[in-house]
Amino acid sequence: MNKTLIDRIGNTPLVKSIALNDNPNVSLYFKLEGNNPGGSVKDRAAYNMIKSALDSKKINASTKLIEATSGNTGIALAMIASVFKLQIELVMPETATKERVQTMRAYGAKVTLHPDGIEGARDYAIDKVENEGYFSFNQFANDDNWKAHYKTTGPEIWRDTEGGITHFVSSMGTTGTIMGTSTFLKEQNSEVNIVGVQPTDGSKIPGIRKWPLEYLPKIFEASKVDKTIEVSTAEAKEMSRRLAKEEGILAGMSSGGATSAALKLIQELKSGMVVCIICDRGDRYLSSDLFE
């Protein structure tokens, strides 16, 4: 047993819904990404982006790193940067929960809170790169983001469903998870249906975005998503609470949104096997009103 923390990224559990799915002809499975060492699906992309940048010598121990993040990517980057002895500044919306900020600082990262949301955080990081010699992984345009899921998430789902998956449901933020997983699953079976989750107009769900055109992630390819389902803030919150109370799965609001979308999808199906990404753990939202 010589496994390091890095070796424990991925191979997360796939568990069957025991309560929320009321369609007996469709099976619903949850991919529990909160079981990654850093507590979210973003461990996969963060490791792949850092390792690839180190291997290609784009960065080294003296490089000034910066990244804009809504939370989970920042935690993952902070954790993996600590393992590789790298210094990183993480820029977040000032509305970020206290747990997220404290976790990043615990790993040794510098945290900057921005008043203008994730768009403002992204602009701040870009300015530091262009004018102060910082290096950004730029998860929104970095192929190593989606390739992490092509190499790991997709193959795990295909293996654990024994090729039986018919529908894959994922929230869309940077879109790395859905792009990489879609690419792999479609190569195995082009009939697998890929469903993206976005917020309804006016809704704010951490980790799920409907980006303005100028901020649309460059890694996003619309052709890799077969269907988009919108969920409201209220639906995402309610489903996060139901996940905990009825399935025993404590997860964040984006996971509640994805589950809400998966259940909407299931109502339309006569048969199938649906896999839904539960992208993080809910304990990093306890200071918010999510579970009140």
From TrEMBL:
Give the reactions, separated by semicolons, that this protein catalyses.
O-acetyl-L-serine + hydrogen sulfide = L-cysteine + acetate
Q: Which pathway does the database say it acts in?
A: Amino-acid biosynthesis; L-cysteine biosynthesis; L-cysteine from L-serine: step 2/2
Root EC class = transferase
* Gene Ontology molecular function terms on file: cysteine synthase activity
Any GO BP: cysteine biosynthetic process from serine
Coiled coil regions, renumbered to chain: none
Family of the protein in this entry: Belongs to the cysteine synthase/cystathionine beta-synthase family.
Q: What is this protein called?
A: cysteine synthase
Species of the source: Winogradskyella sediminis
